[in-house]
């Protein structure tokens, strides 16, 4: 299916927030992602729809997997890719963010992928430069491509996500993954449950359109999927929770706890995992339950779809 | 199965139901089997003549310090437990500042282990934090059996950390006992700010330090939904703030230390280090306000605040002496003395040491009720008692030493077994 069949053109200049997307947008992304996913499994992965375009990955926060995923996605689409990352000296020279944006814009890239510790940073880049920007994580605000790949993976395993019970367990307060996921899952009318230590849950989380739980056992009951979030070590030193062992004992997910969920419940994790803390090692490796590597694979396909749509080079343009 | 214990001719006081009447009580299999006037013992019962003495639920003290674990001191834990039993305490909740602090689940496990051999019920409060801005393993300690969480008298100054802590604890629905003072007003002070303290040249904190403390904690209770126990309220100012917090519908409770029910700042006027206490002794009007608050239920619990201080730590000028008093064996005498002087009805005093703490912590004991655990104390409320004259279990210095009180524990029963009795009684 191409874009034309929807009589709908992807209307977004960039992808700043998952909450800006509608259901038709999701169908466009996912139809395209499914095709990319299939092709990515062959030995002819190249699909040069972005030929001639330049993508800059601008990662002010350390990242390996997300950066790699974006880089592979853009390269498979035939784009020229330049990476700037946190370790890179050019991002540490005391230049203002606006100057960095304008300098890069002067090099005429076609797409920016931005990760930054401040909420609103990706939007700032897009407004400053006028260049299509993908938010690869802005502080604790949004991480829309993660939510897209999570929803894609959920749909592949559960079918229609509407009415399905999905728990997100962990540090909701600091999680952009949780915020973006709640936006998309609400759009799909899923039954969303948020669970974590009260000191890691926003005070108004019950107004996010989700039910809030402090007991992981209660939260998991009857779930079709559980998304486990990574526990950042700095939450302990910041005095938000006591210790890794207490977190593992009270909020960690293992087979025993998961037995409270539906029989076919799947387990997801945005990575990288702290094995033995938020997720038990045996559970993470149980391929009947854990779809964590499916998420990683879907990540490339979904990002390819997003890059194409934003470049205005969706599937229909490729079909002669 | 051997017979039960039959206590005849007692004045039965059950603060929970308000019962205060002559009668008998029979114990079998660790529970109260029957209560009432005109009961008859079974043939093989051990019969104890109460002779009009008061029989009430054994005391529940939720704030006593022990010198262990992790340290040693003037009394070891066994001595503290014996002092509690002799004082009529059936359930002893050790303060989280006991020894080196009850900061880890292993410490709570250690208490559970020691409780196996203890004649009375022994529990330990979980410490809130292990260092500045470091949360203790509250969840694991509660799971290990701690009945509440507490700062152990160490004020948490960092409000952001305190907010996180209270949020975190709220998920476990546990009471968090906190010190209600203003850090900067109270830090380093040894007395209550008054004309007397100033004349004596003591560094002193004003009563509003406690008020600011209560107001700060009440605001955080409102924000986080945590249940806060204001530990050791001692001032009229603090009680006013407590009353306002209750009025706002907050889930708050308060405790008061035994010493402050009997003593005021005049007692420390001679700078006797025995009266060096934390919080310091307050004015007479504060003491009166405290007694009123206990009688009308604003203060939920009385704690012994038992603190075994080494003799050498007390043997110092007032300001340099370590604060604290051995108080477990003074609980019943103080309640009886206050009742006899018309200052605090015995039932109200007992309620704050039995059914109120039981209700607060969800314990089944603390009431005289058929089927309830047979945790009982029998005491003679009239017996004159020069505190310490006939010897005490606790060797630690006490603010009550030599004080003319009245009231004596005759016998303590825990879980249906006699765990302490006055020499010559029921032998």
Automatic annotation (TrEMBL), chain A:
Residues 15-156 form the Aspartate/ornithine carbamoyltransferase carbamoyl-P binding domain. This is Aspartate carbamoyltransferase. It comes from the Bacteria. Heterododecamer (2C3:3R2) of six catalytic PyrB chains organized as two trimers (C3), and six regulatory PyrI chains organized as three dimers (R2). It catalyses: carbamoyl phosphate + L-aspartate = N-carbamoyl-L-aspartate + phosphate + H(+). Gene3D superfamilies: Aspartate/ornithine carbamoyltransferase. Its EC number is 2.1.3.2. The gene is pyrB. Belongs to the aspartate/ornithine carbamoyltransferase superfamily. ATCase family. Pathway: Pyrimidine metabolism; UMP biosynthesis via de novo pathway; (S)-dihydroorotate from bicarbonate: step 2/3. SUPFAM superfamilies: Aspartate/ornithine carbamoyltransferase. L-aspartate binds at residues 93, 176, 230. The keyword Transferase applies. The keyword Heme does not apply. Catalyzes the condensation of carbamoyl phosphate and aspartate to form carbamoyl aspartate and inorganic phosphate, the committed step in the de novo pyrimidine nucleotide biosynthesis pathway. Reversibly catalyzes the transfer of the carbamoyl group from carbamoyl phosphate (CP) to the N(epsilon) atom of ornithine (ORN) to produce L-citrulline. Carbamoyl phosphate binds at residues 65-66, 115, 143, 146, 271-272. Pfam families: OTCace, OTCace_N. Residues 163-309 form the Aspartate/ornithine carbamoyltransferase Asp/Orn-binding domain.
From TrEMBL, chain B:
It comes from the Bacteria. InterPro entries: Amidohydro-rel, DHOase, DHOase/Allantoinase_Hydrolase, Metal-dep_hydrolase_composite, Metal_Hydrolase. Residues 279-418 form the Amidohydrolase-related domain. Keywords: Pyrimidine biosynthesis. Gene3D superfamilies: Metal-dependent hydrolases, Urease, subunit C, domain 1. PANTHER family: ALLANTOINASE. This is Dihydroorotase. It comes from Glycocaulis albus. The lineage of its organism: Bacteria, Pseudomonadati, Pseudomonadota, Alphaproteobacteria, Maricaulales.
């Amino acid at each position: 299916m191409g874009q034309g069949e929807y009589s709908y053109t992807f209307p977004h200049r960039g992808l700043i927030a998952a909450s800006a997307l509608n259901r038709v947008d999701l169908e466009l992304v996912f139809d395209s992602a499914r095709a990319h996913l299939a092709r990515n499994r062959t030995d002819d992965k190249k699909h040069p729809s972005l030929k001639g375009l330049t993508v800059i990955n601008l990662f002010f926060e350390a990242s390996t997997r997300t950066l790699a995923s974006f880089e592979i996605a853009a390269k498979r689409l035939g784009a020229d890719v330049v990476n700037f990352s946190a370790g890179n000296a050019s991002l540490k020279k005391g230049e203002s963010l606006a100057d960095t944006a304008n300098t890069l814009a002067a090099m005429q890239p076609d797409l920016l992928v931005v990760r930054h510790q401040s909420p609103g940073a990706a939007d700032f880049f897009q407004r400053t430069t006028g260049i299509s920007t993908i938010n690869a994580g802005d502080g604790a605000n949004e991480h829309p491509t993660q939510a897209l790949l999570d929803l894609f993976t959920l749909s592949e395993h559960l079918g229609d996500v509407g009415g399905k019970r999905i728990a997100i367990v962990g540090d909701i307060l600091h999680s952009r993954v949780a915020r973006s996921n709640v936006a998309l899952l609400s759009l799909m009318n899923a039954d969303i449950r948020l669970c974590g230590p009260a000191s890691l849950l926003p005070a108004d989380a019950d107004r996010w359109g989700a039910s809030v739980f402090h007991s992981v056992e209660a939260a998991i009951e009857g779930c079709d999927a559980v998304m486990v979030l990574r526990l950042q070590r700095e939450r302990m030193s910041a005095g938000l929770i006591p210790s890794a062992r207490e977190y593992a004992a009270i909020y960690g997910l293992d087979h025993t706890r998961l037995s409270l969920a539906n029989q076919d419940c799947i387990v997801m994790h945005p990575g990288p995992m702290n094995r033995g803390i938020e997720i038990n090692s045996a559970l993470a490796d149980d391929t009947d339950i854990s779809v964590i590597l499916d998420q990683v694979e879907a990540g490339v396909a979904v990002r390819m779809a997003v890059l194409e749509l934003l470049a205005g080079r969706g599937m229909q343009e490729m079909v002669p | 199965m051997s017979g039960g214990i039959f206590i005849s001719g007692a004045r039965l006081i059950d603060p929970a139901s308000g019962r205060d009447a002559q009668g008998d009580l029979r114990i079998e299999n660790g529970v109260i089997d029957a209560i009432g006037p005109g009961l008859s013992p079974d043939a093989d019962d051990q019969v104890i003549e109460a002779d009009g003495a008061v029989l009430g639920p054994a005391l529940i003290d939720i704030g006593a310090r022990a010198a262990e674990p992790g340290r040693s001191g003037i009394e070891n834990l066994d001595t503290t437990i014996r002092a509690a039993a002799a004082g009529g305490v059936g359930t002893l909740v050790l303060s989280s500042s006991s020894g080196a602090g009850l900061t880890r689940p292993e410490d709570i496990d250690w208490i559970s282990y020691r409780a196996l051999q203890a004649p009375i019920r022994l529990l330990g409060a979980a410490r809130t934090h292990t260092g500045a801005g470091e949360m203790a393993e509250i969840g694991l300690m509660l799971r290990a059996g701690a009945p509440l969480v507490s700062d152990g008298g160490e004020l948490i100054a960092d409000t952001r950390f305190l907010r996180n802590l209270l949020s975190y604890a709220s998920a476990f629905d546990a009471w968090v006992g906190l010190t209600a003072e203003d850090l900067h007003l109270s830090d380093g002070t040894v007395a209550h700010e008054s004309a007397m303290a100033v004349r004596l040249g003591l560094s002193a904190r004003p009563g509003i330090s406690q008020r600011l403390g209560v107001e700060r904690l009440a605001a955080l209770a409102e924000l986080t939904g945590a249940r806060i126990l204001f530990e050791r309220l001692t001032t009229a100012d603090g009680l006013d703030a407590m009353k306002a917090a209750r009025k706002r519908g907050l889930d708050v409770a308060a405790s008061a230390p035994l010493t402050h029910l009997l003593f005021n700042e005049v007692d420390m006027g001679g700078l006797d280090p025995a009266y060096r206490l934390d919080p310091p002794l307050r004015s007479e009007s504060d003491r009166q306000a405290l007694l009123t608050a206990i009688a009308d239920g604003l203060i939920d619990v009385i704690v012994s605040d038992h603190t075994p201080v080494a003799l050498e730590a007390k043997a110092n000028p007032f300001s340099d002496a370590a604060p604290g008093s051995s108080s477990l064996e003074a609980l019943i005498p103080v309640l009886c003395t206050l009742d006899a002087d018309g200052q605090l009805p015995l039932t109200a005093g007992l309620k704050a040491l039995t059914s109120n703490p039981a209700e607060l912590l969800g314990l089944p004991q603390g009431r005289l009720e058929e089927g309830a655990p047979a945790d009982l104390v029998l005491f003679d409320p009239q017996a004159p008692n020069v505190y310490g004259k006939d010897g005490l279990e606790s060797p630690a210095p006490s603010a009550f030493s030599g004080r003319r009180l009245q009231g004596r524990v005759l016998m303590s029963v825990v879980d249906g077994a006699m765990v302490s009795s006055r020499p010559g009684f029921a032998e």
